[in-house]
Amino acid sequence: MSGARIALPLARIPLLVLVAVWLLPGLIGHDPWKNDDAIGIGIAHQFASHGDWLLPRLAGEHYSGDSPLFYWIAAAFARLLGGLIAEHDAARLAGGACIALALMFLRLAANAFNQDPRGYGDSRVDDGHGGDSVMLLFMGSTGLLLHAHEAINETALLAGLACAYYGAGLVPKRPYVAGTALGCGLGTAFLAMGLAPVLPLFVALLAAPLFVPDWRSRSAALALACGLAVLVPWLAAWPALLHARSPEQFTAWWHQANLALLASGPSLAAAAGTFKTLAWFAFPAWPIALWALWLSRRKPASAAVAVPLIALVTGLAIACLTGSRGELPLLPLLLPLALLGGQVLSDLRRGAANSLAWFGTMTFSLLGALIWLGYCALQTGFPPRIAANAARLEPGFVSQFAWLPLVVAGAITLAWIALVLGSARSPQRSVTFWAAGVALFWALTMLLWLPWIDYGKSYRRVANSLHAVLAEHPGCIASRGLGEAQRAAFDYHASIVTKRAETGARPDCPLLLLQDNTGQTETGPAGHWKKIWEGNRPGDRYEKFRLYAKVKAMP
Asked: Which residues does 242 contact at the CB level (< 8 Å), separation at least 6?
């Protein structure tokens, strides 16, 4: 690479380095964080420590809102790596492994679809570079970055769906391999998240023969039949075991993880919120995907366009009609967007490609400089205004200098500069710069700012402080308003499990733990209670925890 302009997409070794820089930082070295990361680690902790591997549990209670596959994987990682790294780090590594599988299968899927000469523009990228571009576009999606580094079951969902897309790309060519990949991929997605996230791709597979001539063949029918045969055991085995153990728990899981989402009514406000979130969440994949659809408007129908497009439209419809809120339900949409957009980068207009490359270069160079400036303020106190703001946001934090993160961050920064200055002009440069810029931002943040971020996001100090008080006041603990992430964190850090008033059980416990998220004046429980403890995370001005002890009424 030295002495010559870097051709894009990247060669294999630089591409693997970029994936590692994007994926590895942030997986280990910090406590569980609110919200989804703490919940996922809490459920995996219950699997690993209590030995009941059939139904997810959170802080001693059945957790019927999720399917178990990711938590099985995370608990297995925790047991295999026990003693080497912390249990929560092992659980997050399981999520990183799932994301790595998703990247691999997505690249294979793009190359499988790319074998169809009718799929995209006339100047397609061959020799596997089309798959590289799709993978880079997926990595560059801004909404994926944080969630790819959390212990959440959506990571296993992405791996399963990417495997199924790979099978879809092989349907007319290798029916048995295609069927196996389809069945295993859809089955993995179902065991990770239930029925709703699987429906878009399933609808696309059923509808594709209506639009794609190659899918109206004996080989395609054989592939789909093989896929269904492989899928059935995935759909039946765990639900049958759960039903045999407890029909009530099976009914609760089937309703909360499947029917509750699909049966909820449509909402115009929720639909508007979905598109508003998707505008930044899926950038820059969605504008490039729109360009791909424009290029293919007059071309014969192909599976490379039809399958991801139908899955995308169906997934958007489900998200809008079911009133899905938040970012996580949109993660599966990044796969078809990347497949649609990634392989037309060679046909991207020069002005658009240069604009995206320039915007990515300037944006992430500026962000990288700000991260370095903030790190200098943490270590030296200069600039004083930034140091004062950091101290105000996380009071009590004391920075500790370490050579290794500094050296690695410096090497990554130099690699970014070399990539920007040494890359030859090409349409693929835009998505490469964007993915590399996202990796630069995340890696520098995790290497230089992780102790400061973890100090404010971790519940370890709050849990240990509460545990010290509980040692002097034995007895069961009732709770009110305690969130799922907080329940998971207290159980994980200090083995504190409460009897929640929200479950309908109101035990006569001598202790009561309240969570207040308003930041307003304290309002204690009715009756004869005395506050014996209060705590919160250092920089959190709204979330407060208060522990009360019951006192006997005077005669």
From this structure: 54, 55, 249, 250, 253
